[in-house]
Amino acid sequence: MVQQVTRGIKISVETTFEGTFYKNYKMHFAFGYKVTIDNQSKDSVQLMARHWKIQDALNTPEVVNGEGVIGKKPVLKPGESHTYSSGCLLTSPFGSMEGHYQMVNFTTTKKFRVKIPAFKLSAPFALN
């Protein structure tokens, strides 16, 4: 698990290898990740958007931007947390992800970024 705190918002990420399969005559490696967002600040915040950089060992980085996470824009009061699971496909057994969330502080009405720490994606059978 990797963790990082930005402006009182703690991000924790756990990864899993889900398996391999063929798609369009090409081998793909499926990875899952679970993110927990803990509001350790004194203000209520809302997650508005996400930005991911997905690095596959065999390809150029893929950038993914979007509103919320898995169709939600969670509001977190002080002491609350939100956990969600998602995944990605790579064309190699190794890769990494990192990024940030765009948040808004309800007390100050200011937007701010919360860093998502870099985490590795690796198929266990490919490690030596």
UniProtKB/TrEMBL annotation:
Pfam families: DUF525. PROSITE patterns: APAG. InterPro entries: ApaG-like (IPR050718), ApaG_domain (IPR007474), ApaG_sf (IPR036767). It comes from the Bacteria. Residues 3-128 form the ApaG domain. SUPFAM superfamilies: ApaG-like. NCBIfam families: PRK05461.1. This is Cobalt transporter.
